[in-house]
TrEMBL record:
Subcellular location: Cell membrane
GO terms under cellular component: plasma membrane
Stated family: Belongs to the 4-toluene sulfonate uptake permease (TSUP) (TC 2.A.102) family.
Sorted UniProt keywords: Cell membrane, Membrane, Transmembrane, Transmembrane helix, Transport
Annotated protein name in UniProt: Probable membrane transporter protein
Length: 239
């Protein structure tokens, strides 16, 4: 049974962070359905959160000078509220309902990316609300990124700053999420033990992802990814 656990977590982390490296999003959305084949939702979130620590430390150190901290400050408090609420829901809500909610979230995300072509402007109140919702989904599913993308895009910044600021937000979420998961008993020493053992898999995923990114047609890769996400979301809803 323990060998099966290591295998499933290794496969999930490899494909999740491989995708994250290649296209810059959807790592959690890929890893979660795979992890849920073997572990419960709280355990799955614990594993993903640990590897986001490793990823955030490296990326924030690399992109520190490009982060727009004024945007980060605006989203910090709403994010804190959302993450706390999300983790409380994760700790005390029926996992079956949460799995179906995750499936719905994934499908809505695919529809959003596929059908909404133009950016739309949002006001300060909506930015705050998106920050809370982004934190909430990050607390429950580690998948709040799409909502932050909407907020940050509306700040009229260049691509380099946009990417770096998104990395900063993900780092902020991780910083809040880890102690909250630990306090609620969701993240334990056993999770850290498994994560450290398969850490080389995470490094391999990042390395191969960087190699593939330089050679693959990103447009078609994203199309295939959206199909896979839609399929995984459907399975979570009907299973």
């Amino acid at each position: 049974m323990e060998i099966d656990l290591y295998l499933i977590v290794s496969v999930a982390i490899f494909f999740g962070f491989f995708v994250q490296t290649v296209v810059g999003f959807a790592g959690s959305l890929i890893a979660l359905p795979i992890l849920l084949l073997s572990v419960g939702l709280p355990d799955a979130i614990a594993y993903i959160s640990i590897f986001y620590i490793f990823s955030s430390v490296f990326l924030i150190n690399k992109e520190w000078n490009n982060i727009d901290f004024s945007i980060l400050y605006k989203l910090a408090f709403p994010t804190l509220i959302g993450v706390v609420l999300g983790i409380l829901v994760l700790a005390f809500t029926n996992p079956i309902l949460l799995k179906k909610a995750l499936g719905i979230f994934i499908i809505l995300y695919v529809i959003y990316v596929s059908l909404i072509k133009a950016d739309f402007q949002v006001g300060r109140k909506l930015v705050t609300m998106l920050g809370i919702l982004g934190g909430f989904f990050s607390g429950v599913f580690s998948t709040g990124g799409p909502l932050y993308v909407i907020s940050v895009k509306n700040m009229s910044i260049d691509v380099t700053t946009f990417r770096a600021t998104m990395i900063g937000i993900m780092g902020l979420i991780t910083l809040v999420r880890i102690p909250m998961l630990s306090v609620n008993g969701i993240l334990t020493f056993d999770h850290w033990k498994v994560a450290l053992i398969i850490f080389p898999v995470f490094l391999l995923a990042q390395y191969i992802g960087k190699v593939v990114y330089s050679k693959i047609d990103e447009f078609y890769f994203k199309k295939v990814l959206l199909v896979l996400l839609f399929f995984s979301g459907t399975v979570l809803i009907i299973n």
